[in-house]
Amino acid sequence: xxxxxxxxxxxxxxxxxxxxxxxxxxxxxxxxxxxxxxxxxxxxxxxxxxxxxxxxxxxxxxxxxxxxxxxxxxxxxxxxxxxxxxxxxxxxxxxxxxxxxxxxxxxxxxxxxxxxxxxxxxxxxxxxxxxxxxxxxxxxxxxxxxxxxxxxxxxxxxxxxxxxxxxxxxxxxxxxxxxxxxxxxxxxxxxxxxxxxxxxxxxxxxxxxxxxxxxxxxxxxxxxxxxxxxxxxxxxxxxxxxxxxxxxxxxxxxxxxxxxxxxxxxxxxxxxxxxxxxxxxxxxxxxxxxxxxxxxxxxxxxxxxxxxxxxxxxxxxxxxxxxxxxxxxxxxxxxxxxxxxxxxxxxxxxxxxxxxxxxxxxxxxxxxxxxxxxxxxxxxxxxxxxxxxxxxxxxxxxxxxxxxxxxxxxxxxxxxxxxxxxxxxxxx
Length: 428
Known about the structure:
alpha/beta, six-stranded parallel sheet, five-stranded parallel sheet, 17 helices, 14 strands
């Protein structure tokens, strides 16, 4: 990892910059695929599956027979782990249910909100080098709690046309309605526009590579809502002289193994601790199965030595990490100073992997600095809050003149007339 000692504040912006990508060619490829799917539906999806996932599919939807077969292919220990994680995710998200009281803002004028589920949602689950069956639980569980009527899932198949059985088991546990063997841009297009097989949804959730992220942002301009803009996964770790170097190294590597474009940052106030972490990284990296991926991620990752906790927190908030792990002695104090982060992990015994799988919080989080303005997926992500109001005759007397006067001054005469007619009625 690259080490920077006591950088001046004028250098922080450059140090915290994410690796840049050339987007023009990417946008052209994605737009071409999306337009083709919009025009030709299933036929185009199948062609792109053959081109990108190297699989020839007669049918796109996973059958009940395939679901049952998956049950027998996943060992009981993993099934129990999936059910355990699902229970914790369910418990945490169920507590987020919104309840609104009716508010009489003044006599005869009552307002309230009602939380209503989005009826059709689409979930994208990456395959590739790490089939993310945990993401199925993270996305489908709150959708089910919210009351979404149709939960559609797309995930890339293997060259033999099968879907990772753990993904199918997790989908059954979490209550997914329909599952399709579609990956990449073509999956986003199918859910955004609808095809002969895939229903059009109203909002798309889930992580993916740069092509998937570009496709989500493209379809969100005109066709469908998305959970959040996102990019490569990232973590920032805060540590001091009391931190456990082996824990910190493991936390950094657990993020680095996600992908070569992942970024990991270590902020510390202890220069001596840096050498301890570097030694641990080398030791743990040597036996890591995904070593080659992690090594490439570490090449653009950084260790930043700062003077004190105040600088550490200020720089971290400026970075706005997707995951923030605070492993300092005074982690409770620093936790109170967090402003920008997707999800925060406190103390020596709370690794990011706990939140990734089974603590109950959601692991679908804003990246690339979007934590300054976005939160991670939660129950509200699957709901809309619709406002209601009811005005009685007394209410017309209470606010009628105010409404009419404001409408007059905005020169919206029909607005004023709509209220004045009622004023005349109740004042007779």
